[in-house]
Amino acid sequence: MLIERHNAILELARQMGRVSVDDLAKRFEVSPQTIRKDLNELCERRLLARTHGGALLSSGIENVGYEARRIISSKEKADIGSSVAALIPDNASIFINIGTTTEAVAQALLQHHGLMVITNNLNVASLMRGYSQIEVVVAGGVLRHADGGIVGEAAVDFMRQFKVDFAVIGASAIDPDGSLLDYDYREVKVTKTIMENARHVILAADSTKFERTAPVRVGHLSQVTTLVTDRCPSPEFATIARDSDTQLIETENLPAI
Hints:
- The protein has helices spanning 4-16, 21-28, 32-44, 66-71, 74-87, 100-108, 122-128, 153-159, 185-196, 235-243, and strands at residues 18-20, 48-51, 54-57, 93-96, 115-119, 134-138, 142-144, 149-151, 164-169, 173-174, 179-182, 198-204, 216-220, 226-229, 247-250.
- It is α/β, with parallel strands linked by helices.
- Helix 2 (21-28) packs across helix 3.
């Protein structure tokens, strides 16, 4: 588990994009050597990328490691999961794709009844395996060892067989213009097929996704029925959501349960 100072360093990196050894040493009143050790550990976990004199938030052409992504914004993802689950009634059919936030949704759905869940996420399938009131259908295709995702043309063809009530999708990054982005074009092809074959598309994305970038375009916010996030990044983005006829739900503005 990350120590408290590591989480604070990650939060600063999310806010500013990069952090420096000298500034962090002053802020936390520790030696530069201690901060360098902290940054090296965070870089080994692929949460940050080392630069001369500091580090920056890991992003760009390669995604943060899957276990590391589980740690980032874990509370926010749990809140998003609960809010998405509240939108889905019993006896619904659902696509759930790859991602740590979509896994949080799956966790929140475990008390639902009569669901049919079609997924290319082995973590979701494993999570739901012991719940007999939920029928789980797993896509065939190429297993991506890094995160348990199933991708490739076979997975695309498999998803085309269905027309479901809801699709729960994630994105690695969301551009200010509303573009949805990811890293693996094979995963993107599956996600596009999922979106095309659902009556209601729910994008579950924590606010750090607005601070990142990725090279492959999944689609646009206008293709999403509902966006559930912890915090909208700006009034301008809220306007894009409204103009796209996309319902925006911010969990930090919801009453505590």
